[in-house]
Amino acid sequence: MNASWFTLFGENEKQGSYLLFIELRKPARVKFGSFRKGLPLPLPAGCYLYLGSALGKKPGAEPLARRLMRHASRSSGRKPHAILKKLRKLLVENHLAGPATLPPTEKRLRWHIDYLLERPESAIVHLVIIRCPVKLEPVLARYLEAKPGISAPAERLGAQDTADSTHLLRCSDPNALLCGIRRDLPAMLSELEHHFC
Length: 197
Fold this sequence. Notes:
This protein is of the alpha+beta class. The chain has helices at 63-71, 84-93, 112-117, 137-145, 174-196, and strands at residues 6-9, 16-24, 28-30, 41-43, 46-54, 122-131, 150-151, 168-171. A six-stranded mixed β-sheet has the order 1-6-2-5-8-7. Strands 3-4 form a two-stranded antiparallel ribbon.
């Protein structure tokens, strides 16, 4: 994975979408809550992607910052992901969060991604942050699923609130994908602005 921890798009919004690049350092059998009736899903070591959004519109809220801080923490006093301190600094410097924004004091496992991020053999190694008030998950899911080297460990994993996409994907070449995202996303966002803004 590239040396830099973050890729940031957009300005002035405290809501948006994001893509977590997650390294699973060794194979694991992961139960994703009640997904597939609680049966563990075997995951080979490698890079995984999680696509999410945080679009809360409450005045003064910091939905994107709070969601990302949550992902970078673990439950029950477990050691957080190494990216957490760097993430907090980035969020404050880019006015996504105030200095007092903290991860949850007691994180409860709620979404599919929580179960993978809780594992000690998983690490968030890069974050793509997109500051935009429009729900981008469907567009980004189609973009990712069309890329070579992207596969779904299980259909609809990480996307129980959508009818036809998967938001937790496996990636065989994360560096190439990140280069493509950095190249393609500005034009995609510009196109979306014409339709929604």
